[in-house]
Amino acid sequence: MSSNDWNGLVPSVIMRYIIITLITLIFISINANALTPTVNSTHFLIYDLANAGSSYDQALDNYLEQAYSLYTNTLGMKMSPPCSGSQYTVYVVSSLPGSEAGVTGWEYTYNPNTGQIISTCIEYINISAGLSSDWLEHTAYHELVHVSQLAYMQYTTIPQDYPWYIEADAEGTASYYTNQCPMAQDYFQYNQYGYDPYDYSGEPIINMYYYSAFIYWLIANGIGPATIEQNVFAGNSIINSWLDNYYTQYLVSLVHGQNLCGSTYYPSFQTISMSGSTYSFSVSLQGLSAQYYKVQLPATGTIEITAGGGSVISNIELNSAFSITNTTLYMALVNPTTNNETVTLTISYTPGITARIVGGTYNVMTESLTLNLYVMYGTAPITGTIYINGTPTSASNGYASATFTGITWGTYVVNVTYENSTALTYITLGQPTASLVTTTTLYLTSNSFGNLVISVNNPNSVTLVTDMLITSPPSPINPYKPMIYFEPPNTTLILGPGTSTIKINFVVNSTVSNGQGDIYIYNSPSTALSLGYDVVPVQVSIINATYYINGNYTIVDTYVNDVGKMNFVIGGFTGTVYINYSTYTITTLKIGVVSPTVRLLPEIVLLAPSWALVNTTIELMTPNSCPSFPVFYYGEFYVNNTYVGSKLVSCGSIGVVWNLLNETYTGQYMVLSVAGMNIMANISIVPPLINVVNYLWNITSTNEYVIVNLSIYGPYEYAVLSHYVNNSTLQLTYSLPANYTMLTINTGFGNITVSRPTPLISLESPAVTIYPQPINAVINITMPPTCLPGFIEYVPKWFIILINHG
């Protein structure tokens, strides 16, 4: 079995040495003296016999020292001393029998006549190599519990018989303090609660470790390891009544489940479904064992569970009838003795009446309470006569109602009787609370209107009916009339359970002055909750208005004295601004803004064959006639989806934005439009007038070079053959292969062709020249009269005339 597997691994066995032969002692002493510890700490000498490595040995020592400090200093546990020296000898070995993780070897001396232990000591602790970090920690904590157990043992009975609680105590303590429960959950997986724990003794077997869940429970409930070991290991009897008493309590508690290292575990429940009035069954229980049941009842009522023939205890009261308010009971049957018990149980069920309040109304002004009830007998709704607080009432298909008078705030019992069965239900009436949702100060003008909003909380499960009265301060002009007209000033409130929002409409129809008013919500026929409010007169002025061209809306900034600045939005240029505050309107303002004029003024500054640079100007012209308050106009302008600029202009002014746009075109015009506005401009394209002024055609023996002067005229600057030209001449140079007689120039705006002229050439020289006089020769080159203005130049490398005399 792998030591890394939490499931099923035996973490420790205590080796009991009653007789240690001299040969064994000498052998151990010689080998121990020949070894050098890999770790020498305060309380432990670690000898690595398995070459586990210094990291493993040091981690083991750390865990042992941590456990020793916790057990002795914090928990007050005693420790059996080492057999030699002041430090415990710990061996790291390759493996242990049965894939055990740890083994503790001990010695003790005792009186053979009485069996009383005289002294104890720890010979060694063996720890298996190759354990995971969690297993190594858990094993260290486990083994040191065994070291502590021996310190409490006073008789040989326990170490010789080796009962279940030796390993349960070590494993449960280690599980609790390392928060690692490798075996405790197996108590539930293998239904260990159904077996007598004293059946496991004589040698450490796996079942003993399962009972660690019980020790974990003891420690979790405040019974520390030192208390457990003092009460369990100091006696002379294997059967321990102190431990057995707690174990039976533990078995009873499992009906609610157990938390082990952060997870909750439950025993297996057998289901009993009650279809009749009685159900009997027998259960056989081993000593100190339990079985668990889920009893399903058809309805609420009265139940009695009788037990006979043996000893048994339960979480449910036995042999006594009691009422139930739910239909599922979880029951533990526990044998508290160490003997086998067979018990016969009978469940007797009597259906009862149930009543619950499903609605109702309490009228505060009349102090009357009407309750709607739903009543059942067993599983059936009642149809017939029932008695509610002694008064006969008709029930139909489970529903009945009753009215009570003289009811004030408090708790009342409703007694429902049917077929000699009684059910009690209760209702508590609590007073409502109220608060103003509207601000407690009303800032008003003579034309204010809106809602006074009140929040009322009904804490009850029934509807409340009560009256509300609202008073207004008097008009400063006519004290016999209210300043504020509430519609209506008196009303009846119907308040369902929870929070209700009450809206009372009001208007002001007089001059406003400072004053106070009250809201009364009656909590009895003669008393009421009171909410007060104040009235403060205010004036409203317009700070400015800004019309946003792009969204076609106007933002109006206002100022209300005692309130502050407020802004509002209207669509377009004109409209009504509602100066809203809290839940009402202080006043209304009529706003009229005159529309501005937007002009698009484009101008081409550079024209290329397929694109142009356009100086785009947008002029925002506001009206000259302006209202009494400041008005501004704001716009962000995009032309052909290119941002041109933004401008804020006051009324009576003109704003200008411009940008240089690069626009493409086809044909003889381009179209520009302002985004979001029905503003467009068509620009006619005027191409340049391009003519050849003159050209020079240079002919050599290998190439022909042409220099052409073009005149470019037009209304803009033009981009021609990578040159920017504005009503001027452009000189171009071309190199052609020999014998080319024509050059075509694509200017982007059109093609221009020039041809190489063909001149007439003649030679003139004297007929005879006497040697050594030079010969004067004349070459005549005549251009054809039809050529364009130009020149031709022949450039030979040399020109030689040879004359032979004779």
List keywords for this structure.
single chain; 806 residues; mainly beta; nine-stranded mixed sheet; six-stranded mixed sheet; 10 helices; 55 strands; 48% strand; flat; disordered C terminus
Please, what is the oligomeric state? single chain
N- to C-terminal separation?
A: 133 Å
DSSP helix fraction: 10-25%
The secondary-structure class comes to mainly beta
Outline type: flat
SS summary, helix count: 10
Mean pLDDT: 90
The main β sheet shows up as: 9 strands, mixed
Q: Catalogue the unreliable spans.
A: 1-33, 786-806
What is the count of β-strands? 55
What portion of the residues fall into strands of 2 or more residues? over 45%
Rounded radius of gyration (Å): 55 Å
Structural notes for this entry:
- This protein has 806 residues and is mostly beta strands.
- It is built from 10 helices and 55 strands.
- Strands 17, 18, 19, 22, 26, 28, 30, 32 and 33 form a 9-stranded mixed beta sheet that branches.
- Helix 2 crosses helix 3 (133-152), helix 3 (133-152) packs across helix 5 (165-178) and helix 5 packs across helix 8.
- The longest helix has 21 residues, at 54-74.
- Residues 1-33 and 786-806 have low confidence and may be disordered.
